[in-house]
Amino acid sequence: MTLEMMFVLTLLMTMFAMLFFEVARPDMVIFSVLVILLLSGILTVNEALSGFSNEGMLTVALLFIIAGAIQKSGLIDKLIKKWLQNSHTHTGSLMRILVPTSLFSAFLNNTPIVVTLTPIIKKWCEDRGIAPSKFLIPLSYAAILGGMITIMGTSTNLVVHGLMLEFGMEGFSLFTFTVVGIPVALIGLIYLFTIGYKLLPDNKGFDQRIKEDSKEYIAEIVVKKDFGHLGRRVEQAGLRDLRGLYLIEIIRGDERISPVRSTTVIQSGDRLIFAGLISTIADLQKIKGLELETGTNIELDDLKDGSINLVDAVVSDQSSLLFKSIKKSKFRSRYDAGVIAVHRNNERIRSKIGDIVLRPGDSLLLVAGADFVARYQQSNDFFVVSPLDTPAALYQSTKKGWFSIIILLVMIVTVTLGWLNMFKAMALAVLLLLTSKSITPQEAKEYVHFNVLLLIASSLGIGTAMRKTGLAEWIAAVLLDFGKPLGLFVILFIIYILTNLFTEIVTNSGAAVIMLPIGIEMANSLAVEPMGMAVLIAIAASASFTTPIGYQTNMIVYGPGGYKFTDYVKVGLTLSLLVMLTSVFIIYYVWF
């Protein structure tokens, strides 16, 4: 092993450790490694930047826009709602949700599908007294399974396709994965309808627990005549930056002042409504002239009068809020919203709100203005943003929605018939959507997840470094020395398991990029079809079922479903084994 190979291997091990312990956002960790490889001279400027012009990465960007235009139309939401109306049994309802989800995910990026359906299904479950936890993990898993059916179902397939083109290989066709994807999806769905459903927890939704425990979130303080700050503004009275408490409303006679500004003047007789960590209310009681109203009849539902929204938001794994305390992130001034509770691992974090350091998948209960949902529904900082009473109806006209779907179908036909390649077809589709005003340039920009693209492009650069230094060839040789006596069948299992482990640590696209050079080197050494190895790695990188952190869709449903980390292991481990066995057997007999 050369010094260069040792240096790259050390960087990779450090990167894995940082991602595993969540030291920083994944895209920043992987981009930092790329910069170090550039500064060290291992990569040239052109090599480091090649990932940013990679066809697969750019195709992912275009797919985000197309999926966003269809998501914006609300047609999928409406179709799912109508489809569920006549369902009377839990298993029947589950089938009505999972089968269309897998079909949609085959031709749209599965992440926006889960983002769209999560609040709808959650609300549907709660209206019928069904635990959302029985439906949301299956929703995520069905989207992942559906994404394996075609090249465009998941960003992983497109990234591997783009990398194969760089290696001088042919790349995937639209339906290369179908021979593996359909059997895998069918077996996975049958498992979810039967054994998997029984293993799922029966949790109350975040919303239900909030409403039941509303007295833990709301406190009322009455301002007496001897209060020392009468006639002063809220900020001057020291009521603005309280530890774990948020002044959300002032009731003055028949008048309700909300939202409360820092310039609002405090008067005698005001009833101050606070939300947040009510155990810290003792700090306020020590102030002369402020009296706790123990028999308050104010509840969370009373605050939804149009000027205030109670919002449930799930922190994204690409969020700029990650690994910062709520106070340091200046959440209140940044979003004009106050965090009054944080749930993680199905438990409410009982700490001072401002001191809580946010992690991916955290569910935030927010008190926000009426326009919060409209402004931040497509923000990269949050996966799901929806009011607690009903999902926001922010949809465009039905005609434009159908036009977006027709554009997608035409694009699929042109790729299938070989008239255009995937990138050209998607570029044309985006152009048509923009010129028809089905989506505006500003909306298109909001739908693109730039953090995801940075992660993918940086990963591609790291893959180049592994091939250039010979590290990929060295790792392939080590694996071959171990696996060759056991046969090709066992080697395929080893590659699959390694890729699957990496996807739980590095994310799916990163795992695929790191493992593909190794897999191609092994295929060349064994003189077997490299296409089969590429399909194996793409499937293994997408098949993240055992943790919430390996795949975005798992993270999206983490908070809304009130899940614990172990729930994914309990339900997902058997599914992972089924997918692995099915995939390896089919790939072995089709390509080798």
Automatic annotation (TrEMBL):
It comes from the Bacteria. Keywords: Membrane, Repeat, Transmembrane, Transmembrane helix, Transport. GO terms for cellular component: plasma membrane. SUPFAM superfamilies: TrkA C-terminal domain-like. Gene3D superfamilies: Regulator of K+ conductance, C-terminal domain. One of its GO terms (biological process) is potassium ion transport. Residues 206-290, 298-382 form the RCK C-terminal domain. The chain crosses the membrane at residues 6-21, 28-45, 57-76, 97-121, 141-160, 172-193, 402-435, 447-466, 486-519, 531-551, 571-591. This is SLC13 family permease.
